[in-house]
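4.2 Preliminary Data

To establish feasibility before requesting continued support, the project team ran the inverse folding procedure on a target of 328 residues. The structure was first converted into the token representation described in Section 3, and no sequence information of any kind was made available to the design step. The complete token record follows.
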């Protein structure tokens, strides 16, 4: 693969202390410059990237006038250039699209009826009470048609100046990319995993990624995206309890009093208790190498034991930080 990175970084890691109704406190920003692919000898395009402490722009590809950008359920981006369809993986790798190939369906998301959009604000309501509001300056408007969501229910949208925003599900700004020029064709699309692809004739295609070490999870050849990402803690991979059991097509029962989860698939029954080093497999006690834990107020269970106990094969690919699960 041959790709071209962002050409110039003017400044790095500047602390931002703005009004908390619009921005996160102490969020780091980067000042960026892009050389236009339309007019490479012109003045560079300046941009501001808020959220550089947690997100980055690891790749940029030059392509002529990219149009009709969309992302699929599998996380691949498709777009047209010179009347030909092309595709890109989240890591920036190009994947050939053969002529006359039937394209996959674009990812579609539905806006929650509890999310209210005004000209320059987003608000989440519960039982008709406002939970949070994210407000833009009065001179900047939200473009409702650009609202998107990932599998973790993070919110994404453009403003009328072409700025691209991401909020968490508590209404806090995760990141924001602002071009310091008029570019009405600047458009972004997000995958279920939260990888964003942005395209314009001036910039080409670029990617925005979370600086996370969370591994990818593929079950029977299909990548899965959970609301809570898998975590590697002390060398063991943990996954959100209910999400993994349901992905493995198991019946799940949670006993809040004993903090015990019981999962059944066919003739296999697994019981795990939060913070206990002992599990049960078909009534037999099993000593665990890693016990279930509470992480970010959710119960996480050790992936390898769960997968193998339910009859699956679990493979760790270190080079790509990918977990392959082959169920039976």
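Position-by-position output of the design step:
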């Amino acid at each position: 693969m041959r790709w071209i990175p962002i050409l110039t970084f003017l400044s790095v890691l500047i602390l931002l202390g703005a009004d908390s109704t619009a921005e996160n406190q102490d969020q780091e920003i980067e000042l960026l410059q892009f050389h236009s692919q339309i007019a490479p000898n012109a003045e560079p395009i300046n941009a501001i990237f808020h959220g550089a402490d947690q997100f980055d722009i690891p790749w940029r590809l030059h392509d002529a006038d990219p149009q009709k950008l969309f992302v699929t359920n599998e996380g691949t981006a498709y777009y047209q250039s010179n009347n030909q369809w092309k595709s890109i993986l989240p890591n920036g790798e190009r994947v050939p699209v053969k002529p006359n190939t039937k394209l996959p369906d674009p990812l579609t998301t539905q806006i929650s009826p509890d999310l209210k959009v005004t000209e320059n604000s987003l608000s989440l309501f519960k039982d008709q009470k406002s939970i949070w509001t994210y407000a833009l300056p009065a001179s900047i408007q939200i473009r409702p048609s650009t609202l998107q969501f990932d599998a973790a229910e993070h919110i994404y949208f453009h403003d009328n100046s072409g700025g691209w925003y991401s909020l968490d599900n508590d209404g806090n700004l995760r990141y924001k990319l602002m071009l310091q020029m008029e570019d009405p064709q600047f458009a972004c699309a997000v995958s279920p995993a939260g990888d964003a692809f942005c395209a314009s004739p001036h910039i080409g295609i670029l990617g925005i990624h979370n600086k996370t070490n969370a591994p990818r999870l593929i079950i029977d050849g299909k990548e899965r995206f959970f609301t809570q990402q898998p975590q590697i803690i002390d060398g063991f991979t943990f996954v959100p309890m209910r999400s993994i059991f349901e992905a493995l097509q198991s019946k799940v029962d949670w006993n809040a009093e004993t903090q015990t989860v019981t999962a059944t698939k066919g003739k296999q029954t697994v019981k795990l208790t939060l913070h206990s080093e002992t599990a049960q497999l078909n009534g037999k006690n099993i000593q665990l190498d890693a016990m279930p834990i509470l992480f970010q107020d959710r119960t996480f269970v050790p992936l390898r034991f769960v997968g193998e106990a339910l009859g699956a094969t679990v493979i760790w690919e270190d080079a790509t930080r990918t977990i392959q699960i082959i169920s039976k």
